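Suppose you are handed a protein chain with no further information: no name, no annotation, nothing but its sequence. What can you learn? This example shows the usual starting point.
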Amino acid sequence: LKMLTLGGVSYAWSLLIFALVGFVAQMIDGAIGMAYAVFSNSFLLSMDIPPALSSASIHTAEVFTTLASGVSHLKLGNVDKKIFQKLLIPGVIGGCLGAYFLSSAPVNFMKTAVNIYLLIISLVMIAKAARLTLSGKPSFRGISLLGGLGGFMDAVGGGGWGPIVTSTLIARNHNPKLAIGSVNLAEFFVTIVESITFFMALGVVHWEIVLGS
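A reasonable first move is to predict its three-dimensional structure. Written in structure tokens, the prediction is:
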């Protein structure tokens, strides 16, 4: 168990700050179906938290947020079973490998790499939103590969599952509601495996980040 304070700020105020960050991140994620981890990780890295601990804490918090989101989408009929099944196993495997890689990689190198990755993901989100048009039949080709890549990059970058997977599915003419619901439900299982892998490799997460988020 490891506690964290921001620049000498008391634990209570640190928890409040993390809660505010988590609230804003979840508002963004709820509105567009992605970017909770991208926003949160950008903030945590700016606080000089090591990438592995940042990603581990974020994904532990996401176990609870994705459970609520996934169950809600399932009950509302927003889950395409075909998409979900194609994403699940590759996403879990990719997330596990990504978490293990990040846990064992040099901290200074990963800080630079993750910051560059988050910048690229943000630009990708903007670019896809700007040119998004739905026409023709949805394509199911390569969804399993997409899930594996999304899971790996999500763990390594501390975020990216939604921006990579959801945006790609929508760009391939999938119904946005079904794409978001299916991806969110699959993300619950991906984050569980990522969190377990991080805990086994690091043995610690910042619990005040988890509680605040």
